[in-house]
User: Fold these one by one.
Assistant:
Number 1:
Amino acid sequence: MSQPHTQLAVLLRRCQWMLDEAAHRLGGNQLPATDRRTLADALDELAAALREYRDEPAEAGADEDGPHTAGDGPA
């Protein structure tokens, strides 16, 4: 993985973890405003990174039909 793609992957995993935690805590009405603000900031950062890297060329052998989804089977 190239450096920009590695950074993007780290952001995606970080936001995934934060969203999982937020969903769990929000269900119990235990997600403080500061945590919601932190999550919103992280999602803004992720969105900006996705926009920045959306035109990056794919690695050789990458799936050219679009993003992989859970129903697509093994990548």
Note: Residues 3-27 form the longest helix (25 residues).
Number 2:
Amino acid sequence: MAAAPAYATAYSNTAVLVPRLHTTKPTVRCSALPYLPPRSSSTAFTASTKHFSEPRRSSLLQVRASSSEDTSLDTGELFTGLKEKWDAVENKSTVLLYGGGAIVAVWLSAVVVGAVNSVPLLPKIMELVGLGYTGWFVYRYLLFKSSRKELATDIEELKKKIAGTE
């Protein structure tokens, strides 16, 4: 089997022309994944990798991470732990109310974001506002050492107010 042409092995998110051996017409394959030539033998694979530069060849390698420790999750232990924590909660109605409120808030914010995205120029304006605020925040709190210390003290004060130790 002959090595695939260079244009057939290039990464592409659009149509890739792949010539067939028995016909003269090229076949068009549409795929979100890159086309890779079939691996019929190790010599054909070695010959086809000669067209790639060194960084390109290293992208063909697959690496599998493994761990010596057991990372599997036992669902029985998970449910017993959750049941113990739920039994330890004194005011269950408040927890359910806050949980339901959080779910409604996430849903409502998704609706608002969808509505804002449907207005033609508004998303770009919001991006500009966000970039402007980010630039101001960096200049005001992160650029100079004294302002970084001020930000750290403000964060510590806020932590104390939330924890109720102040």
Note: Residues 92-118 form the longest helix (27 residues).
Number 3:
Amino acid sequence: MARELSPGLKILWVWTLGTAAVLVTSVVRTRVRDMENLMNAEQQQQQQQHNTATDTETLLVDTSPQSSELIREEKP
């Protein structure tokens, strides 16, 4: 048994579903943009740490009586 809806009720349903779709799309876009910004910030921070680590090198001296060599260690 088919139930017929009035035109006004159909318009109200279309309006409601359209508004919900717009709101959900807006929230998803905002979340994706925030996630991209967070990932970009983390990548920049890692690049800065990597650049800092490669700029500074640590030299360790072996003070044992058997060896008088310098040991070079690079930080990751």
Note: The helical segments are 7-55.
